[in-house]
Design brief:
There is one protein chain. The chain is an alpha+beta fold. Helix content is about 15%, strand content about 40%. It has three helices and nine strands.
Length: about 180
């Protein structure tokens, strides 16, 4: 009971005073609950990739015909988000449902809520709230979720990447080395 009260008090304090160091890294469930997005800091920019999805699918609406057969699992969707204010990151977002990339921004509402907003033509904007979750790719994850396999790529020493390295590897490819790129 005391732990519950402390957690609630901490979340309310974040909302009331504004957490000076909000952290959007981690794993987030989309509002419609069809996927989780893992966000990591890759060399000073935030990137997010599809970490799990309820239904495996392909990027079939991509404007580049050569990319239409790639799976959406592991696909970068939050692209090069840069901090522009204490609790605001701006960059791009890729929507595989329509194959378009939009200007976007993210901000941490509280410890468990991320606001994601995208705009088309600079004035047609929309957004949704994502909910923080524990990584779904651990043993015992709920059945029915297609999860991104950590073992698919390996680091130069042969080990499997940690969750942040997994995101950066999916964004930059195998040439991306954490010890050279300043993984945070």
């Amino acid at each position: 009971m005391a732990l519950c009260l402390l957690a609630t008090a901490g979340a309310l304090a974040d909302q009331a005073t504004g957490n000076p160091n909000p952290d959007p890294t981690g794993e987030w469930m989309t509002e419609k609950r069809y996927a989780t997005i893992r966000i990591a800091d890759c060399d000073g920019h935030l990137w997010g990739v599809v970490a799990s999805e309820t239904t495996p699918s392909l990027d079939f609406r991509n404007p580049d015909p050569k990319l239409r057969q790639r799976p959406t699992l592991g696909l970068p969707v939050l692209l090069s988000m840069t901090r522009t204010k204490p609790n605001k990151w701006d960059g791009k977002i890729y929507n595989s449902e329509d194959g378009h990339t939009y200007t976007a921004g993210i901000s941490v509402v509280n410890a468990n809520t991320l606001r994601v907003e995208g705009c088309f033509l600079g004035f047609l904007c929309g957004g949704e709230n994502w909910t923080r979750v524990e990584p779904m790719d651990r043993p015992g994850s709920p059945p029915g979720l297609n999860t991104a396999p950590f073992g698919r790529r390996q680091i130069s020493d042969g080990s499997a990447p940690n969750p942040a390295e997994y995101v950066c590897l999916n964004v930059f490819g195998p040439a991306w080395l954490a010890h050279q790129r300043g993984l945070k």
